[in-house]
Amino acid sequence: MSPRTNESAPEGGHGDRPEDNPASEPSDDTGERVSALRRFSASARRRRAAQLGFSALSLAVALTAGAVAVGAARDGAGAVTVASSPDGVSPELLAGNDLDASIRALQAHLRAQPRDYGGWATLGLAYVEQARTKGDPSRYPQAGRALDRSLELRPGGDAALCGRAALAAARHDFTGALKYADLALAQNPYSERALSSRIDALVELGRYDDASKAADLADARHPGVPVFTRYAYVHELRGDVKTARRVLEQALDTATSHGDIAYVATALGQLAWNQGDYKTALRDYARALAADDTYLPALEGRARAQAAQGDTADAIRGMEQVVERYPLPQPLVELGELYEARGKAGDRAKARDQYSLVDAWVALARANGVDADLDTALAAADHGDRKAALKAARAEWTRRHTVHTADALAWALHVNGQDRQALPYARQATATGYRSATFLYHRGMIERATGNIDQARASLTEALRLNSGFSPLGERAARTALEAMK
């Protein structure tokens, strides 16, 4: 967590500098942000390693300044009036096209009513969501300042504490997220957001038994879509896919807002894709996009399912649209791999460009207080600096022991030739019953490298049986390895 900033005017008045004002409006020009990332990645390839850190910091400063400098100039016609909520952001506020307009309305409201602590908490939560959905970590400091302002006006306010939990989680500080969720629940034991944040934090810390108990408690205290989706994921992590789908289907039946429908339908699509049921996944993503045709996770999921079905052209077009709007690490890597798998003239260079953009995003994220070690480890192990991947994976493992960090550490050790050290982590990644073709593929390749041929054959076969479209390059490597072991 970043330290609290020194706010002059706790009542919410403007400071002398734009960056001192958490009610100023971030730039909404995603095209400029993507262009900046692309320019940065190009220059980084030409400069010495010693210059990279300075360039990354310069990019972060430039984007952060652009995010806070435009202020009230864009509070024009078309903004909607949004009342602040003591419980924070509503699903309607966070739904696709409504979020930016709602933030502008909140900014205008807080300039008129600067002592509205609920408004500051809502604005802080909205900034966190805006940063997440737009892939722009430079908005997190703004969120922190808005939440600080709320807590200055009402110390111990549960809505602002929930916002602090959300911000900590967004920065991958899950110990901090758990602390703030518990503080919020001490003020309001029935806070849906705090109950949900507590489940998230426990999951991301690898405390799955505690997360299951937290999900049961949340379901008893405040059942609803946010709790149902987390309850389903806890079951999925244990391999209980049937219960996870049943709970998500029930949640979808109760969803009424466009935002909730898109969110839950996308979760159903991801669950189906994980099990190799691409037809069902595409149906679920179509339902999500019918509710909100701008919903990024559904667009990304649809492209992934299209690729798994062999529809490479549509998958590439769809993923290009995703990364053009929001250049986040996972879709950047997936697009790069799609280019590599297609293999047309120029595709290898296009793939390298995507992988370079991951490095640029990681630099920006770190400059704004985000722990990006897991993103670094996953991308760099296959498409970057393998030693950096191992360093990042080890650092992440010191902070939390999850199935995802175990898998990342196992694979980073493998690509660095340390297979005997990798095997226990690969087995730990699959020990909960979580059904992931990627995890099985990684385990199988590590088993093969350590001479456990029968186990390797079983793991790789199961990965392809479960979800052969888990990765275009991974599928090819798995099939090649199985052929070599005949």
Task: Walk me through this protein's architecture.
It is a single chain. This protein is mainly α. Helix content is 73%, strand content 0%. The chain is built from 25 helices and no strands. The longest helix has 21 residues, at 49-69. 55% of the residues are buried.
SSE inventory with pairings:
Layout: H1 30-46, H2 49-69, H3 91-94, H4 98-112, H5 117-134, H6 140-153, H7 158-170, H8 174-187, H9 192-204, H10 208-221, H11 225-237, H12 241-254, H13 258-274, H14 278-291, H15 296-308, H16 312-325, H17 329-342, H18 347-367, H19 373-383, H20 386-399, H21 403-415, H22 419-429, H23 437-449, H24 453-467, H25 472-484
Helix pairs in contact: 1-2, 1-18, 2-18, 4-5, 5-6, 5-7, 6-7, 7-8, 7-9, 8-9, 9-10, 9-11, 10-11, 11-12, 12-13, 13-14, 13-15, 14-15, 15-16, 16-17, 17-18, 18-19, 19-20, 19-21, 20-21, 21-22, 21-23, 22-23, 23-24, 23-25, 24-25
Oligomer: single chain
How would a textbook summarize the main sheet?
none
Strand content: under 5%
**Element-level helix/strand string:** HHHHHHHHHHHHHHHHHHHHHHHHH
Give the number of helices: 25
**What is the gyration radius calculated from CA atoms?**
22 Å
Return the structural class.
mainly alpha
Dominant shape: globular
Count of extended strands: 0
Q: Give the low-pLDDT segments.
A: 1-19, 26-31, 40-96
